[in-house]
Write a structure and sequence with these properties.
Residues about 1-10 have low confidence and may be disordered. The protein has helices at about 1-45, 50-55, 60-70, 75-85, 90-100, 105-115, 120-130, 135-160, 175-185, 190-210, 215-235. It has about 240 residues and is mostly helical. It has eleven helices and no strands. It has two domains: about 1-165, no CATH class; about 185-238.
Length: about 240
Amino acid sequence: MNTLVETLNKSDKNFILQGFMAVWPICLGYIPLGIAMGVLGQKAMLSPLQVLAMSLMVFAGSGQFIAVSMISAGAFIPSIIATVFMINLRHLLMSSSLCVYMKNVKPFKLTLLSLGIVDETFAVNIEKLKKGNWGPRRAIAVNFFAYSAWALSTFTGCYFGEFIPEGSFGIDYALSAMFICLLIFQLNGSIYFFTGIISGIIAVFLAMTINGNSYIVISSIIAASIGVIIKKRKTRNE
């Protein structure tokens, strides 16, 4: 019995370690980005605890950056909530991709997993799941470390934000740089490259014709649908 308990404990530790080893580069990247978010939050007159609460409850870099920008601009709360909701709708697409690998998983584990689904954790977990030998506990560990790194970084940035001049160190460009890097790492073939180009073209067109930030979600859905159709046709021809 003791041997079995020791084996299980060692296995749990391995899951945690493997999750950390998979996500630690993302955590390092979260530090400057989270600090940038915290600084902007401080400039928007949010307290460190308010920024921490936002990170813990929302945990979405792009959504939080947009929310802080709208707060600074004096936007109404309902419009902020609606905008962040629209921006984060892409998490539904990520969840639908992950659920294929999460059959027969208990609801509690699915809840923990869904809490930490963001662009970066999704990218790490989906690649690991495709290769196999990766389960919900490892995926949850990945999300937990990313979640913790982001929350602590935003709190720190807000706490020390008063000592950092607005616009310093390229803080305003931090979010754009992060998504450019994520896009580059996802370009694993001509179809992905084409889908990215189409998404960008549609997003620019919609941004000039409709108000708000809904063009991001709309362009993503349209481009992803086009990419799926092209991939299916290519598979049939082969």
